Amino acid sequence: MTICRLEVSNPAFTPDNTQFVTVHSSHLNRRHDVSIYNVNAQTENVPIIVLMHGVYGNHWVWMGLGGIHHVYERLRSEHKISEFVLVMPSDGGLRDGSAYLPTKGHGNYEQWIMDDVITAVQKTVENVTINSPLYLSGLSMGGYGALRLGAKYAEQVSGISAHSSITDLLELTEFVDHSLDAYDCRNLHESNIVYWMNKNKNKLPPIRFDCGREDILYSGNIRFVEELKSNGIPHIYETFEGEHSWEYWHTHIVQTFEFFSDIQTHRR
């Protein structure tokens, strides 16, 4: 039992269609938080999108800084996307960012996402079940998390979409001051996205990602695209005007919702 306890917000006092959950996790040996939107979803086995934030962020930033629930509702009202539950976890709270990786003695932030967070949503949102399709998305460090976890756990994931992504763990040093030695990458390939994509090449879900041309991570994304091409890994890559900013992510989360919705349509 990896979840020791769940504390769930009261809908009478919570913003409409929103839920906050505090998860007491044995993977982290402490408490961390998840924001969930569209908890009143009516679809049976409603699919979930796990949205991973970047360095310095927390569970509330997707809504509180990115306003993505407004984008989701607009697209739904225009009948452009199918129904999802939006799951927005803390990265686990390691220093400036956990990178959603295992660490040496600080907790397993990979299993926090792939075990604790998903189980917590299944336990607290009525129409989310073990049969709900799982989609992974993220921005910056969260984009790295979505690409890496989606590739490593390919059989569990229905689609991957990432924005302004760190594509090599070394790029994390652009944002943090601490040593990368904290991350448990004793296996040489553990942090390498392309390694996991090659390892699970025949199982990979559809993959898309994008980056702004003025983004600090743009050149890294271009190198990553070339690496995927040289390894024959199918993907969609898009570039747009924009920087590493919430304005960019608020605008281009549309591509994620539409991409996942298209996958759902073809699943039926």
TrEMBL record:
Molecular function via GO: acyltransferase activity, transferring groups other than amino-acyl groups; hydrolase activity
Pfam families: Esterase
Stretches of the chain forming a coiled coil according to its record: none
Organism superkingdom: Bacteria
Keyword Ribosomal protein among UniProt keywords: no
Keywords, in A-Z order: Hydrolase
UniProt cross-references to InterPro entries, sorted A to Z: AB_hydrolase_fold, Esterase-like, Mycobacterial_A85_antigen
Protein name as catalogued: Alpha/beta hydrolase-fold protein
Source species: Echinimonas agarilytica
Lineage: Bacteria, Pseudomonadati, Pseudomonadota, Gammaproteobacteria, Alteromonadales
